[in-house]
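**Paired protein data**
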Amino acid sequence: MVALAILRVEKLKSFGNVGGSEKHTARLQDTPNADNTKKNIRLIGMEDSTALEDLVKTKIASTTKHKPRKDAVLCSEIFLSASPEYFRPHDPSKAGKWNYEQMADFAYASRTWLINTYGDKCVRAELHLDEATPHIHAYVVPINDKTKLLSHKEMFGGDGRAASIKLSKLQDSYAAALAPLGIERGVKGSKATHTKVKEYYQAVNSEPLTAVWENQQLAPTPFESARTYINRIQQSDDFQAINHQLADRKFMLERLKSAEQRARTSEKERQRLEKRVQLLESQTQQLRDLPNEDVAWELGLHHDQQRWKGHKHIINIDGAKFYDFAPEQQKGGSCAIDLVMHVNQCNFRQAIAWLDERFGEALAERAAIAHARKATALIIQEPRPKFQLPVEDKALWQAVSNYLTQKRGIGENLVQALHERGLVYADDQQNAVFVMRNLNRQPLAKGAFLRGTRGENNMFKGYEKGTLRREGWFYFYLGGEPTTPPEKLVLCKSPIDAISFAMLEYQVRGDVPPTRSLYMAVDNPNSLPLERLRHIPNVRVAFDTDDAGNAAARAVKELLPQATRVKCEAVDWNQQLIDYGRQLRQQQQQHKEDDLSL
């Protein structure tokens, strides 16, 4: 069966619509038909925490001349895919499975088409791999190049015949971009209804599977042969939607069965943890505070009408808390030490000494620990500022790129790929900013490592203020399938070393790693995310060969027993990359001279 290109367009007329669409495509809300074990890929736009709404607002503000009309389409969502026959030609019904190389070719061709067609008007594109069939959600701000005004109608057509013509031309263009992959356009001029993105998802998730049968175009025409009817049905957009529905249904049934098994396992784990909590509670009994009633009695107060009275105090005690209702007091606290300080009018040190005299050292220590724990609990509840990445200066990126490729010897393709993923960019001081992220399914920026590139001998390097070095790392993946867990981990001291190591492997082998490989910069073994790394079978420790590097490597091998030491021949991996490149150029020059001598 021939694989067909699929393109849908949806209007987003308000920023509420934009935010609602992002919640689905960025997986900011629970998506029942999505497999959370698979990671989606950002094809266009930085992988940061910037909201889609902000990207659209910034694009509109920087490009348009006037404030958008109230009825203007602020953003256009484009859905791109191909029928299942392309991604899994041997068995289109196997939802959630696909040929990796064909998926990658589809993603590359679609991304190229988006960039060539819309340029920087396409503010984000997300490749979804966690549903039945790979597909792309792209967001385009429909700005007219001539008028500098928002105009979805000008870009995609309005209602009626004009919209059909423009959409038809758009589908022609997209199908032409996918044609080298063997993906064809649907029947041109077909009267089948072109489903919108939202309606398409409603059809896919509907129950029962009858949403698209209402289209009378699926009925045979008079005197139509069986072969002609079958070909027409197979090329129908509605038939492709049915295929997606059936595939998604099978996929969801498999996930439901898996979820039920996980639920049973989770219940057993919950029961085990509950027993553990009960044990810990019994073990930490000694850390609890002294009873306020016992302390009040030692302070010389007497219990009368549910209050503790004496020395001009009228104190109500409620567990660990107390409050003094005496007219000249009107004050409360939350632990034994607070009660002693209040009644005796003393400071913290004097309160501890008093408790030691009356209850002994062990119980005084218990009260002090409880006091510290409560004070700490209040402190950690205070709001803390979130880490902010340095502001990007796109005008300085070329200078930073030249530094990495020309002075550091890193391949231009790898530098550009990391830049497009949002992992390295230029700030306003022309520093190379290497983004440090957590290892979650939706990674968030937790810090940044800066490397100076301005001038001949710029030795500046360091971390951006506020970097959370135990929560974020500079890392990237190469090789294998994006949805598979890494089989190899390479640990280097710095981002440039990690990139250089990957580049050396590429130059020696001549292609990307055959298995999923994770390259990570870690300058202290104590900051390793061990729980996420201990299951990777092949760990290579590629720190510097000096005393500090050897000590760090030994520490890593204690934490990750499967690790092996890899030593570079030069002072670091970047210098080895530079030396290797120089040797290659010398060999090439020698070959040229030998050819000329012949």
The CA atoms of residues 273 and 418 lie 42 Å apart.
